[in-house]
């Protein structure tokens, strides 16, 4: 049975909130579409030929109430009824054909009638099947529209809940639980039926029986009293046993409900694929990134002949938990082979490599010597100077996923999986870029270090972004930063007159003079290698002296370079060229 859609009513105060109004408008539109489809079904069904049929049809409808809305169930076209009615027709026509067949051999006219009859019946059955299929499609369409309207209503109720409880839902998991609770309340309200009249009639009937039973009950009571007096110990034992049974049953029932609810929560917050498939899919994505990195590293060989190559490159990498969370939402218990097309699509959306040729007309001085006189002359000449601009943009995997068309519910679950790390916090080992961001570490730089104007300018700019999260491909305050994006931005905007563009960690090393560790001073850059799978420098920070740096870890923070991790990955120091 398909229910009619529910139309919610909100107060003017509720609708004053833009989010509630937007959600309520969407819900109203969804209800309008569902009602239109339901009305079509109802209008086709409610064409009474006799009053008796109308009354009978009306008696089959169940009325439901949800606040001010009324629901009428529309009966789905019955396969059993359809086959039964068709079967009866087939039986009758079969008997008729057998009767005619007895004489058709001797009568050409009868034979012709027989063939014509069969052809007509075939046409009738074809039309009948088409009509029945059309009814089913119309019913299914109406049912889906009602489901969509229910979903829109839940979203509207959730927006109202957020308006009424602005402090609730401080994290994705609690928001998910709240929305889940609203869905249950909404479904319960829709499913609820008015049982008052049934209860009243049952009570009335019971009243008549009570009077007749009263006398018999009195006699039975006397006998029971006598039995209890003579068997008091046995009855006490039975009562205690019964009480224990009820307590244990209640405990197991509660545990069962708790287990079911807990299982749903665990599954909703967990990566459900096998570990080898999760890691394997991530390795396949890393292989695509390695191929891109190799392509860029070989640009000067595959595109030779240019006078200059200019690079503007974002870092190449991703957060493996973002990838695993997205694949879980899309495929649930996925296999490595199953997601290859999706990995390729995500990769193409995340990275954009462009090669642009620029030809500049430059002037140079040439000299020539007269072979007879030995006189040397110079002159200016124009020539073409060929430049290849290599630009790589990493939009960030999280940004791609956020704009991939996931529903609101799927995005909420994606955020929950990121927050819980799929309940597998160690699946990707010690990947520092996969760890969730926390509080940043502050540090007081000694006053004497700040007497260096260039360093003071760098720190003034860098400290504006303390606490910003690590975002692959990020290179501005609007997108947040990755490690090289952060350092590039500080260099370009600190007021020291530098302009290096957007470089990778390895690219930043190219604009520095490499210096020994003993010569490092505040304002120099510090480079690390092997923090992820790439050649050369893979991470960069700004050295501030006394074994400390400011860098974009997760989040942007001060950190000691003397820790075991950074000492193991230390590469070199570099001083930015003037």
From TrEMBL:
<keyword id="KW-0788">Thiol protease</keyword>
<dbReference type="InterPro" id="IPR038765">
    <property type="entry name" value="Papain-like_cys_pep_sf"/>
</dbReference>
<feature type="transmembrane region" description="Helical">
    <location>
        <begin position="235"/>
        <end position="259"/>
    </location>
</feature>
<keyword id="KW-0645">Protease</keyword>
<keyword id="KW-0378">Hydrolase</keyword>
<dbReference type="GO" id="GO:0006508">
    <property type="term" value="P:proteolysis"/>
</dbReference>
<comment type="similarity">
    <text>Belongs to the peptidase C40 family.</text>
</comment>
<dbReference type="InterPro" id="IPR000064">
    <property type="entry name" value="NLP_P60_dom"/>
</dbReference>
<keyword id="KW-0812">Transmembrane</keyword>
<keyword id="KW-1133">Transmembrane helix</keyword>
<keyword id="KW-0472">Membrane</keyword>
<feature type="coiled-coil region">
    <location>
        <begin position="20"/>
        <end position="47"/>
    </location>
</feature>
<feature type="domain" description="NlpC/P60">
    <location>
        <begin position="452"/>
        <end position="577"/>
    </location>
</feature>
<keyword id="KW-0175">Coiled coil</keyword>
<dbReference type="Pfam" id="PF00877">
    <property type="entry name" value="NLPC_P60"/>
</dbReference>
<dbReference type="GO" id="GO:0008234">
    <property type="term" value="F:cysteine-type peptidase activity"/>
</dbReference>
<dbReference type="InterPro" id="IPR051202">
    <property type="entry name" value="Peptidase_C40"/>
</dbReference>
<protein>
    <recommendedName>
        <fullName>NlpC/P60 domain-containing protein</fullName>
    </recommendedName>
</protein>
């Amino acid at each position: 049975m398909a229910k009619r859609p529910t139309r919610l009513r909100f107060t003017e105060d509720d609708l004053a909130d833009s989010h509630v109004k937007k959600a309520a408008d969407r819900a109203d539109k969804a209800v309008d579409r569902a009602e239109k489809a339901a009305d079509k079904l109802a209008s086709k069904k409610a064409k009474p030929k006799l009053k008796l049929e109308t009354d009978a049809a009306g008696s089959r409808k169940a009325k439901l109430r949800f606040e001010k809305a009324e629901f009428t169930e529309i009966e789905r076209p019955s396969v059993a009824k359809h086959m039964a009615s068709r079967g009866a027709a087939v039986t009758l026509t079969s008997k008729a054909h057998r009767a005619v067949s007895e004489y058709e051999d001797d009568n050409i006219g009868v034979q012709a009638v027989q063939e014509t009859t069969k052809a007509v019946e075939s046409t009738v059955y074809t039309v009948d099947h088409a009509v029945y299929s059309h009814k089913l499609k119309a019913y299914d369409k109406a049912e889906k529209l009602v489901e969509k309207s229910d979903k829109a209503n839940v979203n509207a109720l959730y927006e109202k809940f957020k308006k009424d409880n602005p402090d609730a839902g401080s994290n994705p998991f609690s928001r998910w639980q709240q929305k889940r609770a609203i869905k249950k309340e909404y479904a319960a309200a829709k499913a609820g039926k008015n049982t008052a009249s049934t209860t009243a009639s049952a009570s009335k009937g019971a009243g008549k029986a009570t009077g007749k039973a009263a006398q018999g009950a009195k006699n039975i009571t006397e006998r029971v009293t006598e039995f209890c007096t003579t068997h008091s110990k046995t009855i006490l034992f039975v009562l205690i046993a019964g009480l224990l049974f009820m307590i244990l049953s209640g405990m197991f029932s509660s545990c069962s409900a708790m287990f079911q609810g807990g299982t749903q929560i665990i599954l909703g917050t967990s990566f459900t694929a096998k570990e080898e498939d999760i890691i394997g899919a991530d390795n396949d994505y890393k292989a695509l990134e390695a191929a891109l990195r190799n392509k860029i590293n070989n640009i000067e060989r595959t595109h030779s002949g240019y006078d200059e190559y200019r690079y503007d490159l974002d870092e190449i990498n991703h957060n493996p938990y973002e990838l695993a969370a997205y694949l879980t939402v899309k495929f649930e218990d996925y296999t490595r082979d199953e997601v290859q097309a999706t990995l390729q699509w995500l990769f193409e959306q995340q990275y954009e490599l462009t090669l642009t040729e620029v030809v500049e007309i430059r002037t140079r001085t040439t000299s020539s010597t007269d072979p007879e006189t030995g006189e040397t002359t110079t002159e200016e000449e124009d020539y073409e100077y060929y430049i290849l601009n290599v630009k790589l943009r990493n939009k960030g995997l999280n940004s791609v996923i956020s704009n991939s068309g996931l529903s609101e519910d799927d995005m909420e679950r994606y955020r929950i999986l990121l927050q819980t790390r799929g309940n597998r916090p160690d699946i990707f080992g010690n990947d520092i870029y996969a760890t969730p961001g926390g509080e940043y570490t502050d540090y007081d730089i000694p006053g004497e270090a700040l007497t260096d104007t260039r360093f003071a300018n760098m720190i003034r700019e860098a400290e504006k972004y303390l606490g910003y999260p690590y975002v692959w491909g990020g290179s501005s305050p609007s997108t947040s930063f990755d490690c090289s994006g952060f350092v590039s931005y500080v260099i370009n905007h600190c007021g020291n007159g530098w302009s290096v563009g957007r470089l990778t960690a390895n690219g930043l090393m190219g604009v520095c003079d490499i210096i020994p560790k003993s010569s490092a001073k505040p304002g120099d850059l510090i480079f690390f290698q092997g923090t992820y799978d790439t050649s050369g420098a893979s991470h960069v920070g700004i050295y501030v002296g006394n074994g400390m740096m400011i860098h974009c870890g997760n989040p942007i923070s001060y950190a000691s370079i003397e820790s075991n991790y950074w000492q193991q990955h230390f590469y070199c120091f570099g001083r930015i060229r003037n």
